[in-house]
Amino acid sequence: MTLIGSPNRTAYAKYDWDTQHPQVVHVHVYLDKGVSEAHARKLMAQWTDQEARLYGLDLQPTGFEPMPRNFGLFHNTMLDQVDAVPLKGDDDRVFYFVNQRPQDYIYSYIGIFPLGIIPPEVVGEVDDPTMTHGWAWSHIESLPSMLLAPPTYATWHEFYHLIGSCPHGHDMGAPNGCYDHLHTLRTTHTTDGFYASMSADGNHLYHSRAEVNARLNGCHDPLVAFSTTHESYNGSVVPLPPVPDQQQALNSGAVSATHQ
Description:
The chain has helices at about 10-15, 35-55, 75-85, 100-110, 110-115, 145-150, 150-165, 180-185, 210-215, 245-250, and strands at about 25-30, 55-65, 95-100, 120-125, 135, 195-200, 205, 230-235. It is an alpha/beta fold. It has a six-stranded mixed beta sheet, with helices on both faces. The longest helix has 18 residues, at about 35-55. The model is unreliable at about 230-240 and about 255-260 (pLDDT under 50).
């Protein structure tokens, strides 16, 4: 499993999150066939109702539009499809909830019964160049995915990449870690009201929608060289805990691993 990191109360308190004056972040949501707006809102609820407020943000969906999934089995085809959607109007981010097809179930189970192994599977991903576009499964019925990364958990995890440009790590308060990136985006001045974003390597900060659209124009995610922000497992069946309550962890000072 990949990790965002553990909550760090001491590091969190060093930043001025200005929670009394939250910055609005607009997310445009696209829905595959069979995915309802109500279900998408439920998957996003941890972020819209709680997580965003911890960092002085107000996460607001700007719309829910149908977008049938293109032909393709692997994770890169889903990311390529959502990357092709430009940021429009007030949109700061784009997220796509994808439904599973029969071939996805076949892939998930193909190694279990004849070989006794669990094949690697990606259950969500955010683009590396801008960290503004992402996807996650809306429903998961294969046993490996249900045990390891159910949709609510995968969505929560991917939104740390999408909203915070958070890298992988073991401590959210580490230098150049999740809190650093979230605070940088929260305090970056942009010219058109855009909520800033950062590349996965932390080397480029985007100040406008036009910059993001230009960078993602014609961008293609490779199949084998997995994105550094994808959520996957490699066959180790360890059931995940419920979505962590970050507020409770920060209040108590508890340290609990948070998976991507």
